[in-house]
Amino acid sequence: MEILRSIDEMKTYSKKLHVDGRKIGFVPTMGYLHEGHLSLVKRSHQENDATVVSIFVNPIQFGKGEDLACYPRDEKRDLKMIEPFVSAVFVPDASEMYPEGFVTFVEVGELTNSLCGRFRPGHFRGVATVVLKLLNIVNPDMAYFGKKDYQQFRVIERMVRDLNLSVEIIPCEIIREQSGLAMSSRNVYLSDKENGDAAVIHKALLDGKNDVLNGEKYSSKVTNHIESLLRTAESLKKIDYVSVVNPYTLQDVDTIEDNVVILIAAYFGNARLIDNIEVDKPAHE
Q1: What is the mean pLDDT of each run of 10 residues along the chain (285 residues)?
Q2: Hey, how many other C-beta atoms are within 10 angstroms of the C-beta on 285?
Q3: What is the set of domains in the chain, with CATH numbers?
Q4: What span, in angstroms and rounded, lies between the C-alpha atoms of 157 and 142?
Q5: Which residues are catalytic?
Q6: What pTM value is reported for the model?
Q7: What share of residues in the chain are helix, strand, coil (percent, to 5)?
């Protein structure tokens, strides 16, 4: 496993792989890896000749007062976890990715205005910018993104389509703890009590999905039910949103006539947790 820290090294390595006719899979991460990340890495390993993982805590996607300074980091641990499945790891410094005078950013329009974009101004500009840079540097054939960050996945998918990038974006299913809590690097912020309480997020999503499948047409009734369930958790600090949206536009749906996604963002203790569930309406309706 090669550990590459400069953009030139990464580009040279990728170019050689392509010259040798090898197909490259790519998994971008911010490190402090868990089984969710590892599921993406393993899938890439199965589907490609070589897998590249990036580990980079991207400063421009963090807003004022967010957890950039304390975001969990453990490079040695991360490298050991992925070594059996990875050909190279790209680990640049912020100064390498954003040299002095950097002024170019990527905006992805309406997809970034709702949900987390409403509560984290500039977040998706930072995400889209770093992902575009990474895709240009690594030049993969396939790139893997977990659907826990559903809005991020749709934003990246649209950016790739709109900018005619030659990479296939592969969405991967959410990996959960035994309690149902979606795996996240930020789960490390949770106390044992908060971690246990946060399992209500997935349970509430399942209840919301059942409401829809049992014929509930009004999103407001679904979201009210979910919020009432979330508020039973002692560790709940704040709900940013519970939303029922169109899977592609991410716009709120008032009356549920077709497939939807239900999304939650809520604070348990100091950890902002996000999760979602896709709801496919029965074909006979």
Answers
A1: 98 98 98 96 98 98 93 96 98 97 96 96 97 98 98 98 98 97 96 98 98 96 98 98 98 96 97 97 64
A2: 9
A3: 2-172 (3.40.50.620), 185-276 (3.30.1300.10)
A4: 12
A5: 37
A6: 0.95
A7: 40, 20, 35
